[in-house]
Each structure stands twice: as structure tokens, then as C-alpha cells.
Amino acid sequence: MKVAFWSLTGLLLASSLQVFAADATAVYTKGGGNPAAMACITCHGAEGEGMAAAGFPRLAGLSADYMQKQLGDYLSGDRANPIMQPIAAALTPEEVEAVTTMLASKPAPEVKRIGRAAEAQTLGAILALRGAWERNIPECVACHGPSGVGVGEAFPPLAGQSAQYLSSQLNAWRQGTRKNDPNDLMGHIARKLTDDEIKAVSAYFASLNETGASQ
Q: Buried b vs exposed e over 27-43: b needs ≥16 C-beta within 10 Å?
């Protein structure tokens, strides 16, 4: 009797997981059948790897909680984007949980860990590893971790994202169209950066890969 019970429980659990995965795949590849929810694959790639040339970010390997918060912020208007806001509004809470959990399970790029003690020669590396404390700009790795691999749910990965995407987000914080970080930390930092500094630090993190980056 007990064996039959646990066998049935296992079958039901396996069936539920299959349905969950199918729902996530449908949302990602077809928009979940909702005409207002454009398929994620269109902009973020078949495996959530992003589309660097177009400035669409990598989602694979990001924290599910982080991605859920971003979708919620698009919905509330704390993060503005003409493509993502209607998509966030069209997805159900169950679809949001399913697709973000699926994306979080996908592998992220392997990146050599580079910390504050590493040599820094270029402008991008100096900002990333040393900051500009004379202007109250902390080094990026202080919050985002060595090589900007991300820390917890509040500080997303910078390494593995394209320079186009990173610079667009710094500019969004600078312009106030993105204001969804704790205590406007990124807003304060972005408004102190010059155009050249934004380009340099974005290019630095975009260049990081398995072997590190040129300094």
C-alpha cells in the first residue's frame, strides 16, 4: 500500500514538473499563446543568451527572483521599456514564475574571477576595479562581485552582458527612466559618469570571458 502511494506521488510530481516546464517553454517560445506577450526567444535568443548586437540582455543563469522583480518593475513603471512593459502586463504570475525559473536554470558563461587587487590600466578596468572615490563612485566589483559575476538577488551579473545593453542601462539610470534599485544607488553613480566612462566600463565587462579581460 505504501509503495503504491509513493509511486503515485512520484508520478504526480513528475507530471506537474513536465507541465511546469511545458508552460515555461510555451511562454518563452510563443508568448504563452497570449497575443500581447511577444515570445521571449525573439529578443533574448534560443537559450536566453541575449542578442548583443541589438542590445538585448542575456537572461540565462540570472536569479529567478531578480528577473521576477524586473518584470514587476516594468509593470509598475519603475523600469521603462516600450517592449517589455506590455509583455510584463500580459503575463500571469504563474507564467512569470515558470519562465524565470526556467531561465535561471540555464548555464551562465564561465568567467575568470577578477577582484580589486588585480592590475587595472584602462579606464574601464580602473572604474570596474578601483572606482573613482574622489567623486564618490565605488568600484563596480564592490557590489557586483569579482568580475561582476553578480551577488544575490539585488546585484545582477555584468560580465557576459553586451556593452550596448550595459551602457543603455547606465544611461537609463542617468536619465531617470530606470529607477528600480535600492536607494537610487545606480542613479547616483550613473549621473556622475561621463559618456566616455560609461562606454569604457561597459566595454570592460562585456569583454570578460573564460580567460578574463585585457587590462
A: bbeebbeeeebbebbeb
Q: Are 215 and 207 in contact (CB under 8 A)?
A: no
Give the pLDDT confidence score for residue 31 in this predicted structure: 78
Distance from C-alpha of 182 to C-alpha of 21, rounded to nearest angstrom:
32
Closest CA relative to residue 112, chosen from 205, 192, 12: 205
pLDDT tens readout for residues 117-146:
899 999 999 999 999 999 999 999 999 999
**Model pTM score:** 0.84
